[in-house]
Amino acid sequence: MEEFEASASAQKTKSIYISTVFGLAMVLLMVGLLGLILVHANNLSRYVKENIVLNIFVDESAHEPDVLELQKQLESNVMVKQTQYVTKELAAMHLKKDLGEDFVKFLGYNPLSGSLDVYLKADYANNASIEKFKASLLKNPLVKEVKYQQSLVDDMNNNITSISLVILAFAAIFVVVSVALINNTIRLAIYSQRFLIKSMQLVGATKTFIRKPFIIYGIWHGLLGGLIAIIILMGTLYFAQVQIPDLVVLQNYTEFGLIFLGVIGLGVFISGFSTYLAVNRFLRLKIYQLYR
């Protein structure tokens, strides 16, 4: 009979631990998904900003070696990500393709100018930086005109700022809720062990001695929950990449690694700390308070 009760108790404890691990895994999975959304949103913002183009039209009297030298100078600028030299002939070919007509043959000459297409780094893709950059460019005698879509840059930055604030606010709320859920899950698991904790205390075990195995189990559960969450996150990333191949331009495996480490770290820390608090609570309670 005693063996049966001991076996039933062990089975019940095992079930509680399994439920705790999967509960932790589901909460950590949500945290990880939110982290992946934030990373993709940030990379999408950077991708959009770095595809804003400045058209620098060079003077028609400029020689090609001088234009190429100007291109080299631009590429060494800290604001510039990359440049592309568009000759008059290449510009005419692109326009003919867009119009569907040979306007050079109709006019008898090519009225287009050569230009340098400049793509800025994301940190400098704002009107203040671009205007300052434009002013410095116009001092160069080779530069005839600099054009870009000012209103587009304004709208883009305003929209990105608004969306980022909403996502960050949502992320902050979600992290608080996640921590509360994990803490509650751990407390329920420790609650089932309250009589064991008090029994150990009554036979003279020190608080440190009582806490130690529970905290070790708590850390272990956090680690397992984190690993399960990461496996599901990796599967989700693979599925998303298969369904949307263009997502690859927004993916950064270093950032993914940091998110996975964060998920495990969060699981281990919160699980271990919540276990410590929960065990301490039952150590402070009187025997009659355990039945409430």
TrEMBL record:
Primary localization: membrane
Transmembrane segments: 21-41, 160-182, 214-238, 258-279
Keyword Membrane included in the entry's annotation: yes
Topology within the bilayer: Multi-pass membrane protein
Keywords for this protein: Cell cycle, Cell division, Cell membrane, Membrane, Transmembrane, Transmembrane helix
Residues annotated as domain FtsX extracellular: 54-146
Subcellular location: Cell membrane
Record-linked Pfam families: FtsX, FtsX_ECD
Span of domain ABC3 transporter permease C-terminal: 169-280
Keyword Cell division: yes
Family: Belongs to the ABC-4 integral membrane protein family. FtsX subfamily.
Protein name according to UniProt: Cell division protein FtsX
